[in-house]
């Protein structure tokens, strides 16, 4: 056989987690919590496996989960979403994103993206026939470059992909920035696919504002949430998209041929999860904020330059302060081999010419694990 089988590489998260295991490293690379999410929600999932439902649920999701997603939209953002026509349940946010990219893009359409960008976006956009137009955000504050953004918009622009809070930067887009994006979407009659999986992981009193909630955006945006992030169960892979009926229809047409449905027992548990009291959501953010502070202080004491993070599970650190000027991939290799700590090179979030000197650390780990990582860094650097 002499045929090309896949143009895709291996995702950095798999590569770094495998290296971490091989070297017995503390894994602050791939983003996943090392504690289980709420017990009551896990019990509901277990009960639903035992008692059912276990057959194909409706293609767009169990009614109770679609209702819960609509209620959650109203409760946190004052949005009026129709659970019958304006919600789609998917197998993780990743699938909702793929549905958006396959369902909303026609070959030759241009798609505006911000760099750093999550690694599943470009492969899916390109499979959908889209042409990526990338706008770079620069450390340390990752501010929206308004002129550069306006310059990539044209009549060919069909879609913008916005991840806020932004993995790996920890940036939460502000109201002014969102308003600039909204003006361009209106001026060029374009849509937005909003990856809001970290919507409840926002710190320091900052608030997450869905682009969909801005004037004129209700009929142009789909916003995507993830039970994996909101209930600390990244393996569950339950995502939910909310938006205007024509856009949700377009995503659903792709969804019917990708996975068609999502495990009904998990959907039932996620529906209950979304209806938990405010204490749950506030508690999650407070707990992760404390972990961020713990790791940030430890990294700073070990000599890293720590960039601010107001959202997500991640913070970005500058290793040039330690006296290294090698590539971030080489530094991550050194971190694993010499210090026994795994991180993610920031270049994994860039198509080309990444900024030099930055790695991403994940802080959603038990305090003892964060402390052990910091102790190892102190020993080596
Ligand atoms: N988008 C971003 C920005 C992410 O960091 C992740 C990480 N899991 C996802 C999407 C995927 O979410 P899910 O696990 O629900 O597919
Ligand atoms: N979203 C997670 C991260 O950024 C990884 C998800 C995955 O492994 N695909 O670390």
From TrEMBL:
Cofactor(s) needed by this chain: pyridoxal 5'-phosphate
Molecular function terms, GO-annotated: kynurenine-oxoglutarate transaminase activity; pyridoxal phosphate binding
GO CC term, one of those recorded: cytoplasm
Occurrences of domain Aminotransferase class I/classII large (ranges): 26-377
SUPFAM superfamilies for the chain: PLP-dependent transferases
InterPro entries: Aminotransferase_I/II_large, Kynurenine-oxoglutarate_AT, PyrdxlP-dep_Trfase, PyrdxlP-dep_Trfase_major, PyrdxlP-dep_Trfase_small
Alphabetical keyword list: Aminotransferase, Pyridoxal phosphate, Transferase
Record has Transferase as a keyword: yes
Alphabetized Pfam families for the sequence: Aminotran_1_2
Sequence similarity: Belongs to the class-I pyridoxal-phosphate-dependent aminotransferase family.
Protein's recorded name: Aminotransferase
Protein's organism: Defluviicoccus vanus
